[in-house]
Design brief:
It is a single chain. The chain has 17 helices and 22 strands. It is an alpha/beta fold. The termini are far apart.
Length: 447
């Protein structure tokens, strides 16, 4: 997608100085290049306007900031650098994208939300759709209202399909995203207790996520999810999809051999929950008229992204990197996955806090202990503050010799280095803020 700064100002009723051609958007001054509009807004930790000089030095072509920064920007205006001002820059970006998207003929837009499984479903469906025609999708894990804006800039006049994640962590966030994307198809992967601290209840979580269907999109959700029948009452166009596989053979770290419409093939993903994501992707692709061969080809070549049950081989270790985020269902699936794997080495589970669960934090972390108590693993290493509830429950269950707990990351590194050996399997699972990928330098040092 391309537009001039003048066009942006006209479409969003904002003020601008100078001229520039824009083909990308960034909210991070480090991730800019020629053609990038750097959006300088105040965030939780800093004011983006403080980084305008860096963005210009790094190659940005123009700046967008709030009206309140007008006087602070007088030097930029005087130097002739292209800059625009809006009352709410993020909403202005969304308004422009909404308008520009409508200029693309025959585009089928698909939105995906849910408590977990969004990225895997997006990668699977995008891989299938790309077998037939041009398809763009959410870049990496950028699934917020900021990420949607960045990802939608990939759209071109000849794009046939777009698949964008609409991840939300507070009430009202879906409102702007659904208006901007206006999806033809809306997928809800599931509803669980993630971000419960912000939403307050599962009912509100379901209400906010189901807004993705509010503009009349054809909805898809697995009928085995208890919330599908509840959401369907408000959105009759929601199709409650079925699990599609005739048979499944677990290949461990190599994925799953499945049978779909009596055709056998392998999906290279780890964790049985990924087969639920695959079922949704297949249901949507079938609805769009894709042939079995196209669906199978797409699933066979699907990519696994950072932190999403990706298999990483380091220094003789096999690491299940599932540390982009964590809630109770995804953590249970990860534990069951490593438990089911046959290996000559030891199996180590490294679990960190599941954050933003609010009043459900303690019971959810205790529930993890129940799952771990019957798991076929050799070591359980727990890191964080909230995961202390898991540790206490495991001690009560008599697993003192198997479990280690620390709230200190450096101590976790030391203990992991002592226990892990070449030939072992290590699971990394925790919420994003816990950043368990920081363990990689330690894991590279194992003997």
């Amino acid at each position: 997608m391309r537009f001039t700064l003048k066009e942006f100002s006209f479409l969003t009723a904002s003020k601008h100085f100078g001229s520039a051609m824009i083909d990308s958007i960034s909210f991070d001054s480090r991730n800019v290049k020629k053609g990038t509009l750097f959006v300088a807004i105040r965030g939780k930790n800093s004011d983006g306007f403080d980084w305008v000089s860096d963005a210009i030095s790094n190659g940005a072509s123009a700046i967008l900031t709030t009206n309140s920064n007008f006087f602070k920007a007088k030097e930029i205006i005087a130097k002739g650098f292209p800059i625009a001002f809006a009352e709410n820059p993020l909403l202005s970006i969304h308004k422009m994208l909404e308008i520009k998207k409508k200029e693309i003929n025959n585009l089928i837009s698909i939105g995906i939300t849910g408590s977990c499984g969004k990225t895997t479903t997006k990668e699977m469906l995008s891989s299938i759709l790309a077998q037939r025609n041009s398809c763009v999708s959410t870049i990496g894990n950028l699934n917020s209202e900021y990420g949607l804006a960045i990802s939608m800039m990939q759209l071109k006049k000849d794009t046939a399909y777009c698949v964008f994640e609409c991840g939300i962590d507070h009430i009202g966030e879906m409102d702007s995203m659904v208006k901007t994307l206006d999806p033809d198809i809306a997928i809800i992967t599931n509803i669980s207790n993630s971000h419960l601290e912000a939403f307050g209840s599962m009912d509100i979580t379901a209400r906010e996520k189901s807004k993705l269907l509010s503009l009349g999109a054809k909805g898809f959700m697995l009928k085995d999810c208890e919330w599908s029948s509840i959401i369907q009452k408000s959105y009759p166009k929601l199709y409650r999809a079925a699990y599609v596989f005739d048979s499944v053979k677990d290949l461990g770290l190599d994925g799953f051999e499945v049978s779909f419409n009596n055709k056998k093939f392998t999906i290279p993903v780890i964790g049985k929950a990924k087969l639920l994501d695959a079922s949704l992707a297949i249901s949507v692709a079938s609805y769009l008229g894709f042939e079995d061969e196209e669906i199978i080809s797409g699933l066979k070549s699907v990519n696994t992204l950072f932190g999403r049950s990706r298999l990483v081989k380091e220094s003789g270790l096999e690491i299940i990197e599932d540390c982009y985020n964590a809630n109770l269902p995804s953590s249970i699936d990860a534990i069951r996955t490593i438990s089911s794997i046959n290996t000559k080495g030891n199996k180590h589970v490294v679990l960190a806090d599941m954050r933003e669960l609010g009043c459900e934090s303690v019971p959810s972390h205790k529930r993890l202990a129940q799952e771990l108590s019957c798991a076929d693993v050799d070591d359980i290493l727990l890191y964080g503050n909230e995961v202390k509830a898991t540790y206490n429950t495991l001690i009560e269950l008599g697993l003192k010799d198997k479990v280690f707990y620390t709230p200190d990351f450096n101590t976790l590194c030391e203990e992991t280095k002592k226990r892990a050996k070449k030939g072992d399997i290590v699971l990394l699972k925790g919420s994003r803020v816990m950043a368990l990928e920081r363990l990689y330098p330690t894991l590279r040092e194992v003997c």
